[in-house]
């Protein structure tokens, strides 16, 4: 198996490290900055003897090394600075995405695309339109990361392990994301039965602001450890054809009564990408929140530059 990671910055390089250390695929790392992907790949190669991995990691400014990839993860683009929303990146990152998708697809026509670049729902939508690929082969990072944050905050609040939590965060990877306490399970019980509504709201609010909280603390960078771990988890489900269910940014065609929009929903992942989209039995209020989130994404989609 061969995996390309485009963008050798914080998320991309950390992801490349996580993947090569798992030793199940060759990894090609690409970036526009001369020397960076080459140097980072060389550095990682020099850990193979110590860590014992046998797959190859290479770096380049050219897409030649990515030819024949099974999976292409796109992390190329600009990250937000303190005080910015992800949506403010739409113009600049759309230009970068178009170039990355065209160049990647030209040499890896059978690849599955995992989009990380923000605003991720809109960038995933753009990738589908530019590539004209079927929707099962293009999806984005959202709910695995947002759910991981929710699980971390619940673990602190209830004094349990984060791994005791099966979180459920759907909708936009942005200000309108929706936390579902009825579908967030802690040691077999829904969160809605474990904490009162004000506490549920506080946990939801911290999760919605989880990315901004890290940007505000770090100032010069956004999060990358949990994001890269989340993408590695998604890639692993594809590589092993596990069928594992996780919430990802996916293109809807009538699921949840929504069409022609990308938002975070539960999907089952396997070799072909998205095997199927899972429709949770949301009540009227829960569904209304998801629809409002889809409307927020539609506004960002409408702000995409024509070229
Ligand atoms: N979806 C999510 O949950 C999520 C999580 C974390 C980060 N992100 C997003 O991922 C993106 C990357 O974040 P980061 O922290 O790694 O940023 P970063 O600045 O550390 O790295 C981005 C890299 O992209 C490269 N790049 C820029 N234009 C390129 C092009 N045309 N071709 C190839 N490479 C190019 C840059 O040189 C840089 O190395 C940002 O847009 C960020 O907001 C999304
Ligand atoms: O917050 C950001 O801008 C990066 C990413 O979307 C995140 O949630 O960490």
From TrEMBL:
Enzyme Commission numbers on file: 1.1.1.37
Residues at the active site: 173 (proton acceptor)
Highest taxon in the source lineage: Bacteria
Catalytic activity: (S)-malate + NAD(+) = oxaloacetate + NADH + H(+); (S)-lactate + NAD(+) = pyruvate + NADH + H(+)
Domain Lactate/malate dehydrogenase N-terminal: 1-140
Annotated InterPro entries: L-lactate/malate_DH, Lactate/malate_DH_C, Lactate/malate_DH_N, Lactate_DH/Glyco_Ohase_4_C, Malate_DH_type3, NAD(P)-bd_dom_sf
Keywords carried by this UniProt record: NAD, Oxidoreductase, Tricarboxylic acid cycle
GO molecular function annotation: L-lactate dehydrogenase (NAD+) activity; L-malate dehydrogenase (NAD+) activity
Boundaries of every Lactate/malate dehydrogenase C-terminal domain copy: 145-302
Class of the enzyme per the UniProt entry, highest EC level: oxidoreductase
One Pfam family this sequence matches: Ldh_1_N
Binding-site list for NAD(+): 7-12, 31, 93, 116-118
Binding site for substrate: 80, 86, 118, 149
Example GO BP: lactate metabolic process
Protein purpose: Catalyzes the reversible oxidation of malate to oxaloacetate.
Similarity-based family: Belongs to the LDH/MDH superfamily. MDH type 3 family.
HAMAP family, A to Z: Malate_dehydrog_3
Protein name in UniProt: Malate dehydrogenase
Biological source species: Dehalogenimonas formicexedens
